[in-house]
Design brief:
The complex is a heterodimer of chains A (468) and B (291). Chain A is an alpha/beta fold. Chain A contains 18 helices and twelve strands. The longest helix of chain A is centred in the first third of the chain and has 22 residues. By secondary structure, chain B is mainly alpha-helical. Chain B has one domain: MetI-like (MetI-like fold, Orthogonal Bundle). In chain B, helix 3 runs antiparallel to helix 10. Chain B is flat and about 70 Å long. Classes of the chains: A alpha/beta (468), B mainly alpha (291). Chains A and B meet through helix 1, helix 3, helix 12 and helix 17 of A and helix 1, helix 6 and helix 12 of B. Chain A: It comes from Paenibacillus methanolicus. Chain A: It holds the Pfam family SBP_bac_1. Chain A: InterPro entries: Bact_solute-bd_prot1, SBP. Chain A: This is Multiple sugar transport system substrate-binding protein.
């Protein structure tokens, strides 16, 4: 009897463990060495991207979505690829979850193979040794077609870590209909112009919008977007902090905002908030909120880049958002020269420690970054390839305006290690500034101290700086 | 020796039956705790890890945001647990002896928010409280109260989060109290009635002491739950304004997943584990006493 009970228990345990072991079968997605198909070894890779543009070529296509381009690129790549039977799984992840997802997956040993994103957000992963160099897949033809400043922004140490695809210059966007309603016709730029206002003009525009914008149909509307609840859209906040001449970083790559210029910029932000020239409660408002408010005509001036601008226009055309006359403007500065920056967007390849997957990932990056048909999609931002910009300049006259703006570009990351972490110490200080918990002087001082501590720590751990 | 072998053979079936549970317990509960303690002594990068002793703890204790998170967490625990236990006792004692349908209605009404995901609740509150486009802010403006931003005020953000968390979770506690109160012997209430005790005296001297084991259990469970408060902070305030609503769990999350400081995050985890362990001692004691 006892023997029977023991046998029964052992059988039950075996069944249970067998069940567990079946359930724990390794998921073969993103693994190499799967079943052979058509005589070629199957290699499966993960391609991640944050939302960039909708559609393959543009958002007007039926069923256009953020992953349309990469799904098409994956199909085209797999069809012509002769080394392996490549299977590419495309996944769109939210921009504000990027670091969380990447860190969790890096810690768990399951990073994506390819990541398509703005380079500024990915520089830390180069410093941490999580990305592989792409220098060997960049040929002379690409170097000639893509200008040097783009290559320099994707080069860390001696190697290229991102394949530039397009760039997204950051500007302001304004509702010209609201300007007209407030009697600001003379301040409206051309449809294909990036209007430059002086700082005095800009302050007058804000004041006029506040005082003269009619309640109908603009009830509850505010002149300008201001937000600081998290790090999203913080590059515009960084630009505002340079409005009075701050260089932001010193020659050693440390933050140098704690001076009269930095404090003056912080004081200016607080003053426009207190004067009611911005949406209320910027400390609790996100850039997403601000973007939504602009599209609903609750804000006259907001932030944008070519992708956001194109998506907003597509939403207006499709009836998803109210139609109005949206135009572009530069961020003004005290000197009169506008402030502008750009996000170079491109693909990187993660160090998955699987040679075959890395090989396929690099081949895929090279394929979609050089394929004559696929690179045309870079027109959704501003193409980094001169050939594409030239081909589409008739279709998008703004390409010339962005080009004219290029001389005012500033490098907002300073190429410092720990930039992602650095972003996390800015918005708490802006919140303290807006709520009055800190004076402008104290806010810039505390940001500089906290930021430089982040930079110092990350320099010590950077593979580029030889810290480990 | 022979006796011990015999005893082992006699109990082998039992050991085999608890083996899967023990394996899961060791793998998914004990191992992470041990690994967390180990990681808290290391500086971890993507490519390697380096033993740094107590440096992670030292950096924690030199960070004012950590102390702010600790203080905020204590305030949340004290306020939310007191509010939850106090209100649940009040609501349960008011209805437990009423008509069964009425009791069911009350239970259901308070339990609905518990069934809704905390993410959804936080998003709804975020929509209501957004200072620029939220409904409450809009109504306040229309009513002439000016700009209202309770999430952006250093003095208002904590009470708002306390209220949102309390309102979402109190249903569970009310259910537990009503169940406990229904189980209190009726003869005690009849004796009190014969003695001419008032409703308040009955609650004060019979009901509350009778449900004391439930109160201990509810308090401990709520303390542990509130110590880990995260979703509402992440979605409603992002720890702001100026770290005014940051909690230990949110601080841990930031270090682990935003700052990539896994060692520091593990140190926070170890400290939270110790706090939880200390707070669980009364419950463990009472359980051991019962056995």
């Amino acid at each position: 009897m006892k023997r029977k009970r023991i046998l029964a228990a052992a059988a039950a345990l075996t069944v249970l463990l067998a069940g567990c072991s079946n359930g724990n079968n390794p998921n073969t997605s993103a693994e190499s060495g799967g079943d052979a198909s058509g005589g070629k070894e199957q290699v499966e890779i993960k391609v991640w991207l944050t939302p960039q543009w909708k559609g393959v070529l543009d958002a007007s296509e039926e069923g256009a979505d953020y992953d349309s381009f990469f799904k098409r690129a994956a199909e085209k790549f797999a069809a012509q690829y002769d080394k392996y039977d490549a299977k590419l799984n495309v996944e769109v992840i939210a921009g504000d979850q990027r670091d969380q997802l990447l860190n969790v997956n890096l810690s768990g040993g399951t990073p994506p193979d390819v990541f398509f994103e703005s380079v500024f957000a990915m520089g830390d992963y180069v410093h941490r040794g999580a990305l592989v160099p792409l220098t060997d897949i960049v040929d002379d033809a690409a170097k000639q077609d893509i200008a040097d400043n783009y290559w320099s922004s994707v080069t860390f140490g001696d190697d290229i870590y991102f394949y530039p695809f397009q760039n997204n210059p950051g500007t302001l966007v304004y509702n010209a209909d609201m300007f007209r309603a407030a009697g600001l016709e003379n301040d409206i730029g051309g449809e294909n112009e990036i209007k430059t206002w002086t700082l005095a003009d800009y302050e007058r525009i804000l004041m006029t919008l506040k005082e003269k914008l009619p309640g109908t149909p603009y009830a509850g509307a505010y002149p300008m977007a201001l937000y600081a609840v998290n790090n999203q859209g913080d590059t515009w906040n960084l630009a505002y902090l340079r409005m009075f001449g701050s260089t932001f970083f010193d020659a050693e790559g440390n933050i140098a905002l704690d001076d009269a210029n930095g404090a003056k910029a912080a004081a200016w932000l607080k003053s426009i908030k207190d004067a009611g020239y911005t949406n209320p409660g910027p400390e609790s408002v996100s850039s997403n909120d601000a973007n939504g408010m602009f599209q609903n005509q609750q804000l006259a001036i907001s932030f944008t880049n070519p992708v956001l601008y194109a998506n907003a226009k597509a939403d207006m055309a499709s009836g998803k958002a109210p139609k109005f006359d949206a135009r572009l403007a530069n961020i003004p500065s005290e000197s009169g020269d506008p402030l502008t920056f750009t996000y170079v967007v491109g693909a990187s390849v993660f160090q998955t420690k699987d040679e075959k997957r890395i090989e396929v990932a690099k081949d895929f990056v090279k394929f979609f970054s050089t394929d004559p048909e696929l690179v045309k999609s870079s027109k959704n931002g501003i193409p980094v390839r001169s050939s594409v910009a030239e081909a589409f300049k008739g279709e998008n006259p703004l390409f010339a305006a962005y080009d004219a703006n290029a001389k005012y570009l500033f490098n907002f990351t300073g190429n410092v290690p720990g930039y992602s972490q650095l972003r996390e110490v800015l918005y708490p200080e802006l919140q303290a500034l807006y709520t009055g918990a800190k004076t402008p002087e104290q806010a810039v001082k505390d940001y500089q101290a906290a930021g430089n501590k982040v930079i110092e720590t990350n320099k010590a751990n950077s593979v580029i700086f030889g810290g480990k | 020796m022979r006796l011990r072998k015999q005893a082992l053979q006699a109990n082998l079936t039992g050991y085999l039956f608890i083996l899967p549970q023990m394996a899961i317990f060791l793998l998914f509960l004990v191992y992470p705790i041990v690994e967390g303690i180990r990681l808290s002594l290391y500086q971890i990068n993507y490519q390697n890890e380096r033993f740094v002793g107590l440096d992670n703890y030292a950096s924690l204790f030199s960070d004012p945001v950590f102390f702010k998170a600790l203080l905020n967490t204590v305030v949340f625990v004290v306020c939310i647990v007191l509010l939850t236990v106090g209100f649940a006792l009040f609501a349960a004692s008011a209805v437990f002896d009423k008509n069964a349908k009425y009791v069911s209605f009350i239970r259901g009404s308070y339990y609905i928010p518990v069934m809704v995901s905390m993410v959804v609740m936080s998003m709804v509150w975020s929509f209501l409280l957004n200072p620029a486009s939220g409904l409450i802010s809009y109504l306040a403006r229309e009513a002439g109260a000016g700009q209202v931003n309770v999430l952006g005020g250093g003095k208002t953000v904590m009470p708002v989060i306390i209220f949102v968390t309390f309102a979402t979770n109190v249903g569970q506690t009310i259910i537990l109290y009503i169940a406990a109160m229904i189980g209190v012997p009726k003869d005690l209430f009849e004796a009190a009635e014969v003695d001419g005790a008032s409703r308040w005296q009955t609650i004060r001297h019979i009901l509350i002491p009778s449900v004391q084991p439930s109160t201990v259990y509810i308090s401990i469970i709520n303390i542990i739950a509130v110590l880990k408060i995260f979703v509402v902070i992440q979605l409603l305030t992002g720890g702001g304004p100026n770290n005014g609503s940051v909690t230990l769990m949110y601080y841990l999350y930031n270090n682990a997943f935003k700052f990539n400081q896994l060692g520091t995050a593990s140190a926070v985890g170890v400290i939270m584990f110790l706090i939880t362990l200390l707070l669980s001692v009364p419950q463990l004691r009472s359980m051991l006493r019962q056995t």
